[in-house]
Specification:
The structure is a homotetramer.
Chain A: E1 25-38, E2 52-53, E3 59-71, E4 84-96, E5 99-109, H1 112-121, E6 125-127, E7 129-132, E8 150-157, E9 160-173, E10 184-190, E11 201-207, E12 210-214, E13 217-226, E14 239-254, E15 258-259
Chain lengths: ~260, ~260, ~260, ~260
């Protein structure tokens, strides 16, 4: 009898039941980034032991993205319920062994395949409801990608609002922000099946996107409101000083990462 | 005591509880149209008494659209859960008093405000789950708007698939189809609160979009599959002969219609 | 060619596409009722011209219900996605032509068939997300139907919380409240397709449930919190003075109503 | 700086962001079990290397459950969006080191907290939409728990139906089935962050519910239909010979398991 097949659970006789196919995974989407500084020291509290704050240690990026994604073959693209998802995530910067990394500390997505990919990558994903204003090219129901264009985005989970943000464009930009631009430093944890024992898996990994293709960047003035809700600590990263916001289209490939520790 | 206010129910002291604000309503979105002929006579069975088949009487358009919409003021655009919705609808052509009209015979949307606007307009809306492939400009996770680009779209309701369609682009087009291009002829029905009595409201109305702004049209080869499910008759309009498919962006304003009978 | 068939839109060749079948409609469910008085005069502001406040004019019932429902034949009961729904509604009392009625001023449900039934009956329904603690008979994950049992219920719409309530049981009761116990007085409105004209339909109707079958009533101490959100006025009916809460199971039949004006 | 806290990701400064609190977890719910034999050899194909078929090797249980659940303290019970979930899962029997176990090979749930608990326990959970007929005690909209009572349940994922089952009660029973009655034998897998490397975590674990409290069992005739869909292999476990169905209420506690290999 051959063994079970499949990249991830559920593993099955033919390997087709896995919640996600094996990498590489391709992404194309709209990305709204809001950068600010949290209260002094607020970010450091979110770093695991052995990981140090970076320069400009309180910088935070809240990122909203509306993705279309696929694996090799791309069959999901014609069944878009299995290729599209939205996400909202919070990124900070940190230092480890002398290098500066980006690190995602909180993230919400709206599909299970995205949740599973994240748990594999060390993105600590939960489910949420994410909405983002889309730019338009015809009609009056939305902003143009030009000065004065206004975008909103919201995050909810468990029937409560967690975040409301806005971006009012002032013009174009050469950068899309500095907080989320680096190789990621993520933790992959799985508690022991015996809760009295140490974690069964506890890794520090790094990964970078490949074949990154970037559209033009639009920048402007940003607002970020984060709300207190039971079962979350997002509001501990409230803005203390806004930096800027950015909107761009991004294409990228994920093909795996490297275990650091 | 002043009377209750609001365009639609629920009417309330300040008129802010109405499920929809008063027109005008603005729309900007992506529209995927699949045109075909159903079995001979299939369309005529969907016309109310007094409304006649048009020339080319079996022509049908299945339309998927991903809209952003707003009322005057546009506040919903920054709270996009209240401005975005997707829909799938079936349009046929008919004649009434010597003129040719388009008529929507079945339609599904994924938000309540869109449902209410439709019931007001005579679009016989139900809730559904609608997904459409999006074109991309960067990355590998989606089609480009060029020959060879492949798009899929699906409709489900009550946890069952009702429709799966595809469009493979062959090039550009000057037309976006002929079935859904006309003034609409819709019925507005409300049964009597006493089910033994005739309808309390039974109107024939017409309406046209205003300030229509159209993006370039991409055309190609289309497929349409419609499935049998309990509680629906969509499959009675299955394709007999495909015509073509179209993708374009559309902007439009709805500001009311006219009662014909 | 025969005319279109079906109780409600969409009307279709065989009448099976209607979003709802014709009455009678049967209901069996769990009902959580929280009664209180709103600020003096708050309720009167929600009555249409010609309808007067009742005795004890500020009394309000917020009702959460978890229903299973069906039409004749009951086929939906084996496809429960089409028979189950939850709702939260706000009921007040009023007088019309010398009689005292109950009147639903705001209501949210989580299925489209329930929305359509409500619009037919004059319940001004919107979509919402409704959750209610269930009593249990085994295990530790829930309250028993006995003194000390604690129940919560929540309402959200458009990704925002609108209401949070609780009930802590103190014992049994002979009554299930007095606000929602009367014949309903509802308005059925449909604006003219030309928004500059008066309503195309504006009726005052009354209806009562039939074949009501009631389980034992449990009563206790209630809390009700109502939140401000854009596009709603629910918070205008905040409690000023709590009365009591009730939990019971209810079975009922709806078979139509009577037009009063 | 203290380390991050929390049972599961996301770990955070105060440990309150974890998608799930630490065990113990309490469950109370309604459980519908349909037992049958799949085609000869069909079940063995779902066992990992080193795990053997049990006696009566093709026996399968499809289980639908509607749970209320909580962690210690039980705060989720008053915010029921965070305590209620439904699931559908497929259980088989197997032998390992001379003992007979139950093993869940496929499972769908409708909340993220339930998904995370399952991935911790080795239940290979995906998201789905699950609906189950509820028994009623008043009214006509549902079955009574007595001979002739008919129950349906359905599973969908990604807008497609995967399973439809029914149970028609014939009477009471002393057993609730034999497939899902044993200690569970589950695999916990996490692929390496470098997809070319072996799994980073690959464990065989066992666990049993504690403090099990069982309501009376109702049994009857069962039907199970499993459908082919892209991205799943559920239909490979279609019934070959039905055994019986069962409905009962179950309370249980999960407090951790034991690693076997």
């Amino acid at each position: 009898m051959p063994d079970l097949s499949g990249f991830f659970a559920p593993r099955s006789p033919k390997g087709r039941a896995s919640i996600i196919p094996a990498p590489p995974w391709y992404y194309s989407g709209d990305v709204l980034t809001l950068e600010y500084r949290a209260a002094p020291g607020a970010v450091a509290a979110w770093l695991p032991t052995g990981v140090e704050p970076a320069d400009d240690p309180d910088a935070v990026a809240v990122v909203f993205a509306d993705w279309q994604s696929s694996s090799d073959g791309g069959g999901e693209l014609l069944d878009p319920v299995r290729s599209q998802y939205k996400e909202c995530f919070v990124v900070v910067r940190c230092r480890y062994h002398g290098e500066t990394f980006s690190r995602c500390v909180l993230i919400w997505v709206d599909k299970d395949f995205a949740l599973a990919r994240g748990w594999f990558q060390g993105y600590p994903k939960k489910l949420g409801s994410i909405w983002m204003t889309r730019p338009v090219t015809v009609g009056r129901a939305g902003p143009r990608l030009e000065a004065g264009g206004r975008f909103g985005a919201t995050l909810a989970a468990n029937d409560r609002r967690l975040a409301e943000v806005s971006l009012t464009l002032t013009g174009s930009s050469v950068t899309g922000g500095f907080v989320n631009a680096l190789p990621m430093l993520h933790s992959r944890w799985m508690p022991s099946i015996d809760p009295s024992q140490p974690d069964a898996l506890s890794e520090l990994v790094t990964m970078s996107s490949q074949d990154v293709e970037l559209g033009p960047v639009y920048t402007g003035d940003a607002t970020v409101e984060l709300f207190d809700v039971p079962g979350d600590e997002l509001s501990a990263l409230r803005p203390y000083e806004m930096i800027a916001g950015y909107w761009r289209q991004v294409g990228a490939t994920f093909a795996g990462g490297t275990k650091l520790a």
